[in-house]
Amino acid sequence: MDRNQQLFDRARRVIPGGVNSPVRAFRAVGGTPRFVQRAEGAYFWDAEGRRHIDYIGSWGPMILGHGHPAVLEAVQRAARDGFSFGAPTEREIELAEAICAAMPNLEMVRLVSSGTEAAMSALRLARGATGRNKLVKFEGCYHGHADALLVKAGSGLATFGHPTSAGVPADVVKDTIVLEYNNAAQLEEAFTQHGHDIAALVIEPIAGNMNFVRAGTAFMKLARDLCTRHGAMLVFDEVMTGFRVGFDGAQAHYAKLIPGFRPDLTVLGKVIGGGMPLAAFGGPRATMEQLAPLGPVYQAGTLSGNPVATACGLATLKEIAKPGFYESLAARTRSLMDGLAGAANAAGVPFTADSEGGMFGFFLLPQLPRNYGEVMKTDGAKFNALFHGLLDRGVYIAPALYEAGFVSAAHSEQDIAETVAAAAEIFKTLA
Ligand SMILES: *Cc1c(COP(=O)(O)O)cnc(C)c1O
């Protein structure tokens, strides 16, 4: 029997669904999850020893590819000095300085261990700092699994949401307003109705949890203006996009399009830990000083600022800060998208794609979707055929059509050519 299947059977006896995060279980695409034995550069090897070109990269963190020598060396050195102290270290300052230097809205950051924790804490801070309760979020955006954020849209315009998970009391999401992404009319109405009660608007500026959907420039400007006018905080969840679409995140992209643009708070994760559990949230000093021990907003963590994780993050940031890093990463990502588009067009399969830096999304649709509803118009059966066809040919993309993809600096033009050739074979069967 296939060793991946053996491990999956064994895992399911002691871990719910056999996995520690649901998407890994392949429920959307069916089949047997690949258990990873080891990884190097652009590849991982599964339990059968089969090599896969890896386009998820731990869902974004592995921007340098797996096992980059400088990062590995930094992690090994840090581990020798101790795994965790529960007392401050110099490396936490260095990482905080490096993160603050990258994004102009960050004067201070607090380091935590996961994106969920960072987003949850940032929103507590926004509520504490404004003295308000209501949150605005968008359908299809994911901000981790904190209770107040596990909400889907209500039935009417700008109504309050319903919990998307059992175990989340309706009371906990009663202050969360869920709107359609890129829908200016809904956004305006929400602020007209509730503006004086809104603590924060939280958004993935380039949404990577509904594949890859950009917030339009006019929409983002409207969000910024409404927050400013009503005294709400604009919270950029850049857990995925931070240091992934560019060194200075998606906010730099919007700052180029909207003069003077800045979010009020920024949430980071994924790349800043280089593959270790590390995340952060930050903003201007006056806001961040509302946090304990200086201010009334409580937030803490036994493993926060972990010395091995900070070493991994710092070594990663050092590499990706090198001149030309993002230009070549973006060019490689575009060449993958162009190659796939060419192959799909030749086969007569509807296809459209977008990318920024080392993050991409493609759709078996004639044009780019603007919101979750449009993303979900993708033909699921065709996507699954593409996914399994690629997997059989040693190419690993996200096992769900609503996830973004990632290219690392370790992916070569040869890897991309192999990927496009594999996809071309499958597209011919999908037309
Ligand atoms: C991954 C992600 C999170 C959650 O981060 P975890 O480390 O998985 O808790 C939050 N927001 C966005 C945009 C993400 O992509």
UniProtKB/TrEMBL annotation:
Record's subcellular location: Cytoplasm
GO cellular component: cytoplasm
Residues modified as N6-(pyridoxal phosphate)lysine: 270
Gene Ontology biological process terms, A to Z: protoporphyrinogen IX biosynthetic process
InterPro entries documented for this protein: 4pyrrol_synth_GluAld_NH2Trfase, Aminotrans_3, PyrdxlP-dep_Trfase, PyrdxlP-dep_Trfase_major, PyrdxlP-dep_Trfase_small
Pathway: Porphyrin-containing compound metabolism; protoporphyrin-IX biosynthesis; 5-aminolevulinate from L-glutamyl-tRNA(Glu): step 2/2
Alphabetized GO MF terms: glutamate-1-semialdehyde 2,1-aminomutase activity; pyridoxal phosphate binding; transaminase activity
Predominant localisation class: cytoplasm
Entry's EC annotation: 5.4.3.8
Pfam families to which the protein is assigned, alphabetical: Aminotran_3
Catalytic activity entry: (S)-4-amino-5-oxopentanoate = 5-aminolevulinate
Cofactor: pyridoxal 5'-phosphate
UniProt enzyme class: isomerase
Alphabetical keyword list: Cytoplasm, Isomerase, Porphyrin biosynthesis, Pyridoxal phosphate
Record bears the keyword Cytoplasm: yes
Keyword match Isomerase: yes
Homology family: Belongs to the class-III pyridoxal-phosphate-dependent aminotransferase family. HemL subfamily.
Subunit structure as annotated in this protein's UniProt entry: Homodimer.
Protein name per the record: Glutamate-1-semialdehyde 2,1-aminomutase
Lineage per the UniProt record: Bacteria, Pseudomonadati, Pseudomonadota, Betaproteobacteria, Burkholderiales
